[in-house]
């Protein structure tokens, strides 16, 4: 009984922690914008935090390829991101500044892109419950057989094979005030999102075989349209 209670508590904590991490992931670029210093002496770049952020993508790709249990993969992902968030220091080295006038419109588009990216996460196999590892922990607590994964094809996944990565990358570059450290964050986030999506592509191909091949032949990889390439090309758009 005590073991089951501990597992239920772990599942709840894991779910909440992952949810907070996702919220922080989308809020963090706005935090960098609002705390950037216009004019005056600019502090140095947070190189230790940059190095920490640079390792996130390879870590997640490694966890995907190693087929790490979701609870432990989520723990590593959450801890790594929060370490980056807490240590990052915004700077005032401006790359571009659109001024206060267009800021509201730019942030409107930012939150639309971020919202679509977050919605895509909720549509993934098992939703946040399994993405966070909470679902797997609950299965262990109940003594149930591990659930078999399913290939998601509905809603945004009917238009793009990787809507989370697509709209996340779009949101990273939507800012009225781009500072040097914000530019580094956007560049690293873009590289990570694309490399993680590619690793997921291989994992889905291994898991679902012909079903995923058929899905890939019908649905563009990124944007919801495809160019005229070779017949059956899988990386259109």
Class by helix and strand content? mainly alpha
Please estimate the helix content.
Answer: 55-70%
Please give the domain count: 1
| N/C terminus separation | 52 Å
Name the shape in a single word: globular
Structural Rg = 19 Å
Average residue pLDDT: 87
Number of strands: 2
Strand content: under 5%
Low-confidence stretches: 227-234
Largest sheet: 2 strands, antiparallel
Q: Helix count? A: 10
**SSE ordering:** HHHHEHHHHEHH
Topology:
Blueprint: H1 2-35, H2 47-54, H3 56-65, H4 70-87, E1 94-97, H5 103-123, H6 127-131, H7 134-142, H8 163-172, E2 177-179, H9 180-208, H10 210-218
Antiparallel strand pairs: 1-2
Give a description of the structure.
- The protein has 237 residues and is an all-alpha fold.
- It has one domain.
- Helices cover 65% and strands 3% of the residues.
- It has 10 helices and 2 strands; from the N terminus they run ααααβααααβαα.
- It has helices spanning 2-35, 47-54, 56-65, 70-87, 103-123, 127-131, 134-142, 163-172, 180-208, 210-218; strands spanning 94-97, 177-179.
- Strands 1-2 form a two-stranded antiparallel ribbon.
- α9 crosses α10 (210-218).
- The longest helix is centred in the first third of the chain and has 34 residues, at 2-35.
- It is globular and about 55 Å long.
- The termini are far apart.
- The model is unreliable at 227-234 (pLDDT under 50).
In short:
The chain is 65% helix and 3% strand. The chain is an all-alpha fold.
